[in-house]
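yo

u said u wanted the structure for the complex thing, so here. seqs first:
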Amino acid sequence: MTGTMLLDIVGLRKAYPGVVANDDVGFAVAPGEVHALLGENGAGKSTLVKMIYGLVKPDAGTMRLMGQPYEPAEPRAARAAGVAMVFQHFSLFEALSVAENVALGMESPPPMRDLARRIREISTTYGLPLDPARTVGDLSAGERQRVEIIRCLLQDPKLLIMDEPTSVLTPQEVEILFHTLRKLAAEGTAILYISHKLEEIRALCDSATILRGGKVVGSCIPREKTARELAEMMVGGEFAATDRAGRSLGAPVLEVRALSLAPMSQFGPALREVSLTLRAGEVLGIGGVAGNGQEELLATLAGERPSAPGTVILKGAEVAHLGPNERRAMGLLSAPEERLGHAAVPAMSLTENTLLTGTIRRPLIRQGFIDMGAAKSFAEEIITAFDVRTPGAHVAARALSGGNLQKYVIGREVLQAPDVLIVNQPTWGVDAAAAAAIRQALLDLAAKGAGVIVISQDLDELMEIADNFCALYEGRLSAPRPTEGLTLEEIGLMLGGAHGMTDVLAKEAAR
Amino acid sequence: MILGGIDIIVLSATLMAASTPVLLAATGELIAEKAGVLNLGVEGMMIMGAVGGFAAATVTGSPVLGFVGGALAGAVLAMVFAVLTQVFLSNQTATGLALTLFGLGLSALIGKGYEGVRPPPTPKLDLGPLADIPVLGPVLFSHDWVVYASLALVAGTWVFLRRSRAGLILRAVGESHDAAHALGYRVIAVRIAALAFGGAMAGFGGAYLSLVRVPQWTEGMTAGAGWIALAIVVFASWRPERVLIGAYLFGGISALQLQLQAAGYAIPVHLLSMAPYVLTIVVLVLLSALHRHGAQAAPADLGRSFHAAR
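structre next:
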């Protein structure tokens, strides 16, 4: 770290009505350095990189890029100055081709034919194979990310910002991405890397700046710290490790036999011959990159989508033709991935939201009328038992932060004492402390004899709480494997590995 | 060439003229929808174009200025829609319906003084010897300039959407306004421009109705042509070349039913008047059903309001 810094930020501040997103934030990145930004959700990482990329204007503070004052008024100016960004939620256009998507991210793209050729060149140089003519909607998550990265690389960036780049990748794809990033860093490109996957940061990054509540609370060299120390620096305190002891597996409570389902949307996957057995007291983890049938699986098991006769058997009874409420009455509850709009109605209060799923197993209805008193006390019970941080049960669901709403949604189902609970992405976008609490609640539920299916992209999470692991890939479910002794490499292969990358990996291995 | 009391050549010749208003309006709406805005006010913009064009042409005595006036009237009404939906984020469906009602009412008010007036005529384009070719001459080469302009506009729209960078940005905005915004494109500006073009085209088409097709001003003279234009865009799976097919189908059946009425067939008049609407929809539904994912070709962000999040 000698010579001039590539990016030097001093005293940056950004306030929104009611909240200071960034306050006196400062750090520096040297050329060729991989610098991590660490922090919980809401710590101000996104606002910070948006300011660097010109999407948001800072209220105060200065930025210098390669020694020059740097005040991008819009992303165009940032790109012209040599700053490129790969977004957390892909900024891609599904109905357009790869080449068109790349062209949209460039200031003055060459004619389409030349562009297609350059995409091929760059993609082979960096080991990211990609066909410029394909429609992005047909690509896997890993391939989509390659589109974004290539879009950035074509502009020869000095600074590459990556916002949560690995959350949708298989372990093999992560390996390829890191290989590309290290190669870029070796060529002198600085990389600003945002992630909450601490092991990855330890493996990849040279230095880290830690944000909490919009302020810089520390910096460190990630390699010299353990993942737990990093997590505690982020949270600003200690948090409990999950306890999975004291469970025994009982009789099967849910069986799925050769379940198939047509795609629910144009670019959506189909379910193909999915079979599984869930036993009482078991936590079954279903891993896989989103978009491989997770939503479809939850919808069919919960009863939102009817399936062929004989495909879903709950406690010995055939339920494939039953709707969600009938399944709830029999003890099968679920919590879908999308908190706002699927699991909860954003504009309704927490009290009213209990009525979405709670009326069957809880006495919230009297003679056909809603018993608001009972609903309110149920909501308050959830708030207390699951430590939901909110002024009260009258607050609208959309006013809660992601983590708090997720605790509420999981709590609402867990407190109804289900025999089978199916959750999709229970800790997606939830901060570390809340995620730990949710995982513990799921384990406690299983300890009481319920069967729990956890669908998640977070493999560490599944390894932590699941007894058995299945992979969902392109609508097919693999045979279950005990999580004990399972390695990340094995899981990665179960998840479909890296699309079209086996050759590259083999070459890397041979070198 | 007479077949069953109907002159095929005259029919084919009137087909192109009869189709032009709907073709223009549908092409304009196609651009607006490709940018992600659903403007249900096409009927209102068309009739404003009809009355605006008629007024401009009779006052100035120039049919060309009449068409310019019609396009301007349509564009102005589209700007009302743009301000409401893009700046004040009102609901696009409700605003579009209101726009149609508003256009119909306002045009009736403006048009009061023009009832019974004859507009200055728009001459047929003199294409010299081309018009003398048997069959092809009267069918293809004996129309006014607007008919050819409308075809050029469809071709231009196709090239614009497929080949130009501006067209790519427009499609991108319609597919995902959030992604387009993240890349630094000005979503609202693109959409307002697309709406203005859509309004101008609808107005242009409306002016063709009152200046050439009818040619006079009568209240409510668009008679649902704007709605057909909207339906054509959907069933054409948002493709300019299919919009052309849909519009010519509608125009063709309109011309045919008029000739059937004139030839004295014993078919109830109401059934005949209904035929163009019903048949166009049926054929286009079949087309989009045959083409898999036809209905899913809609721009992904069609009808959704954009508000830049922090």
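Chain A has two domains: 7-235, 252-494. Residues 500-511 of chain A have pLDDT under 50 and may be disordered.
cya
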